[in-house]
Protein 1
Amino acid sequence: MSATTALHLAAEIGGPPQYDARHYVELARLAERGALDFVTLGDSFARPGLDALAVLSQVAPATRRIGLVPTVTTTHTEPFHVSSAVATLDWVSRGRAGWNAEVSTTEAEARLFGRRSAAPAAELWREAGETADVSARLWDSWEDGAEIRDVATGRFIDRDKLHHVDFEGATFTVRGPAIVPRPPQGHPVTVIDGTGGPSQEAAARHADVVLVRATAPEQAAGIRADVRRRAAAYGRHPDSLRVLVALTVDLGDAETAPEPGLESGPPLAAGGSYYRGGPVDLAELIARWHRAGAVDGFHLTPITPERDLERIVNGTVALLQHRSLFRTFYPGGTLREHLGLARPANRYALAEGRA
């Protein structure tokens, strides 16, 4: 990767559960002032809190450019509903939606639904991959221009531009078509944590953005190269995905030196990499890793969102912008444009020579 390749930055705005959407609106607006590509909002059936996708649907009309990426758990969730809900977020945000696919592995979560027992992670990630696959097919099941809204003839849709997906997976079948017209981005952006284990193949095959964890630029570069190789093996162009290092950050003491190389940071859940230090040193780390060609960018999870996100935007990001290493404005209006990703062609229109 060339050192001149655009740097991509994103941030998590979750934390202890909050039950007022204004909390998340303010954090998203703060991230938007820094021109970050997107914000994520974590979610899980294993903890209390508001539904992330519903919250970001509330955030959407209160923001203008920032991408909005809720965690959506595919286990115990109907794929048709996942597709419809993410497409709806893309419509209400005018093309700024993504979704972070996740799975539920515990028996306690399974008991909340009572439909099935817990399953091995490998099986659940195969199902998550199939959910991503059928979602993309459902988003394509309405071709662009399928809505004609011809009052004179009373025709709302052009039925020649609607398609049954007729998908059969290991645990579900979906006939289609969708009930939501094709989203503004064609396909909302799919994000998957592909650091290791069962999620790797789903990430390489279906993700637009792959999150990875690393404690040194050389390690990050190796993981990125492996993700791109796996994607190519599935017939994808390696440049069609972005690999971001997931980094948990603690900027509580701006004068504290960062953990050397991250190696000595305290262990976190899922083996996540950890940074403790000041905003300036964080900017140096980001710049150094990116210039080395190790990563496409960073996904930053603040230990304390209200405090650390402000220091990320007004300290770290401002310094990167001052050094012309990160943009100062959004060049486009959609999340795909922020990430430099093309709007996918419709597979059914291509098959029938209309694309």
Protein 2
Amino acid sequence: MPHRVVVLALDGLQSFELGIPQRIFGRSLGSEPLNRGEKLYEVVTCSVRAPGPVHTDADFTITVEHGPEALATADTVVIPASHELGPVYTEGRLTDELAAAFAHIRPGTRMVSICTGGYVLAAAGYLDGRPATTHWSSADHFQALFPAVRVDPDVLFIDDGDVLTSAGVAAGIDLCLHIVRRDHGTAVANDVARRTVVPPHRDGGQAQYIQRPVPDAQLAGTTTARAWALGRLERPILLRDMAQQESTSVRTFTRRFREEVGISPVQWLTQQRVERARQLLESTDLSIDQVARDAGFGTPTSLRQHLQATLGVSPTGYRRTFRATAGDRC
């Protein structure tokens, strides 16, 4: 049976965030011979009340066909942002209606929030003692209201195992793609991203708030350098080499790179190499030594260290999870 995702639609919800789970999970299709083309998730939307209208933050309402009982069937619960959280936002407590809805959720259900949906998880006690994030503009208020939560206002999303939180708007897409990647591997997540026309991978640690997200029009960007680097990830790449592709100094290049991408060139290179290694581990029978070389890490030790730091798993363990037959031959 497909993994069942239940999206909790609250009054005042932001329609964009509401559509993210259906767009990402609902379009995730199997890529293995036994499930190729089959839907991997079933997405259901429910309300805290009986089926009926739910107000959005726009000039329209939506009709939700499921009540809170649907939460009892969820493998994953997703709570999008809402602008009408009432005492959840002002006092840090669930309304009676929300508490009754949450009582349907089975122990062990994966809990996910998008943007200010994290307030609901925090008020329900899911985030006590855990790291979490929310939209950067709400981070200070969130931390003051829920001092037991370890709030990180700078990241796109946080994966804490069975509880995951994201920053606002597009970061919800990043988190949902991350979940697909975690559940079914890079190939499936990349396929969804390609059809959604969004970047296939933005790491959770990437900054959510960049002071200058759009470079000055008169300044050159760093697109040429990034394309050049992606074409030679298996070889040593120095910062000065990337700067030369844009005919600029290392200092200027580094500043422009952060303005465009939100992280340093070195961090970006490591992310791209980890992504390349994941693709090779999933889709080829190459030895771990060869994967390390082709991804630009040079040695299996370096590959293992970076994969462990990023994913918490060894190269062989990752391959065994997403490509069992290849993993058995490692």
Protein 3
Amino acid sequence: MFTQKNKILFIVLVFVLLGTFLLNVSLGSVSIPTIEIFNSILGNEIKTSWEIILWNFRLPKAITSILVGMGLSISGLLMQTLFRNPLAGPYVLGLSSGSSLGVAFVIMGAGFLPSFLISDYGIVLASSLGSFLVLMAVLVVSQKLRDTMAILIVGLMFGSFTSAIVSVLSYFSTAQELQKFTFWSMGSLANLPWNSILILAICCGLGLVLSIFSIKPLNALLLGENYAKSLGLNFKKTRFIIIFATSILAGSITAFAGPIAFVGLAVPHLAKLLFQTSNHFILFWSTLLIGAILMLVCDSIAQLPGSDYTLPINAITSMVGAPVVVWLLVRKQKIMI
């Protein structure tokens, strides 16, 4: 299954992941030497200011980047295989729009809500609830529909409907509320406390475990639903698990980090291009590693090393992801010709 070339590529990716992790933690407005990072992790004493920066800001952000990169990339791979659509991403089911609607109600409908909801945890709760309601609606509809492509259309319609409500709320909101909602929609990997990272890690872990159990069915789905059914695959159950796993991954990430674009769309294609295979036993682990690496690289760029400014992570992922997707489409067209 794993050729010698694939084994070498995996080893290289693991070392690149470790390198980008250390680079991400060391860069910023204050540069921290790599040896001091190791000393701190091993429990040795370093400068107090470096210790605070490292454990309160840099390490939480780097771990969040890895979780977000892995979760979005795997959910993108699941959706592209399920719908047999290379442009499907983790948010095609309308989960991002559901989260946006929940957050919009908290931020732009603050006058009608209890005061305890108008907080960072209130925003996370509202985002989770919004994506959960959309998930429930999509799961109910998926049990009624036989055509998988119809579920994709239903997800897009849910997204359009919730976006319309967000637009109405935006129209009646103040400039300050609009600004706060805009900042949330740009995404952020920073400012997550360790207890929030633990919750995110548990959610991502659950989604990834469900995805691992879906690897064999995903390989069967590559040749179509009818072929998969002829192999004895329970298609409805498999589709339910894949949608549920994607929803846990994309929903929890959106709740804690905001909607982050293009990672889930671009990374599965990069994995296929690098490993030259459609086997999900290989694609799962390669997508996992590349997704984590890409998010760490994007976050390192967003930090503007040596500067006090930090760019929105969504802007960086879009700048990196959009050209990649365009290049892939052009390359695919050339191969077809």
